[in-house]
Amino acid sequence: MHYVDEGLGEPVLLLHGNPTWSFYYRDLIKGLRDRYRVIAPDHIGCGLSDKPQQYPYTLATHIDNLSRLVDSLGVSELTLGVHDWGGPIGLGWAVRHPDRVRRLVVFNTAAFLEGTMPLRIRMCRWPILGPVAVRGLNLFARAAARLACAQRERMTPDVKRAYLLPYNDFANRVAILRFVQDIPLKPSGASYALVQSIEQQLPLLRDKPMSIFWGMCDFVFTPQFLGAWTSRFPNADVHRFPDAGHYVVQDAHERILPLLISFLARS
Fold first, then answer.
1. pLDDT tens across 145-204, in order?
2. Exactly one of 43, 62, 83, 246 is catalytic; which is it?
3. 42 is an active site residue
4. 207 flagged as catalytic
5. CATH tag, 3-266
6. How many CB atoms lie within 10 A of CB 198?
7. Which residue of 109, 117, 135, 182 pairs with 87 in a disulfide if CB–CB is 3.0 to 4.6 A?
8. Structure pTM?
9. Which of 43, 83, 84, 253 is catalytic?
10. What are the residue boundaries of the structural domains of the chain, listed by start?
């Protein structure tokens, strides 16, 4: 497992989703590392981590991997930041260890069973079509680079290349497809029961300071998901970005950073 570990001070752990990697958090890392220890891993199969072909790419495995990483780094207490699949992975770890969570930072994600999945994503789960589209043609990652960023001018050719760099061939896209296949849409899904269990245990974290940064133009994690967070964590600080999409940090990092620094300092 590859990870970024920069700066000294209180640990801040940032977890990416699919199909991004720790590169997604680059501007927050640069802005926080002068006063915090910022840790940003690449989940197995993602970014610069190994990409084994025969591997249990399930939510349970990713949570176990995160647990081993945190323990190996000797981190006893941390602030947890999550985006996309980082939500169920991070909150899955957090409900196991609520005493080790100091604060929560949420970017367009879910850790509960809510809403529906857009057809364009469900199609990527279809037999034959899914592997061809996601692994063969790299359509999932390429489409995300185009659609998940509302501020299109920020997705420059160099930035787009960096997002796609780790996923440059069929073998290296294995985790992208496995993440899509693991989305818990119905009870028979491999991770459905685990997400349900995480959702039921979220009250263990209700007293933790939470700050939410939400891109309101997200076609996957719509404002309905934001409402699901605020209903469960009514005391959370909520920052809505009407001109930001699913890649809210990519779209609004310079507005997020001072708000995040203020939240960390006062809580």
1. 999 999 999 999 999 999 999 999 999 999 999 999 999 988 999 999 999 999 999 999
2. 246
3. no
4. no
5. 3.40.50.1820
6. 26
7. 109
8. 0.97
9. 84
10. 3-266
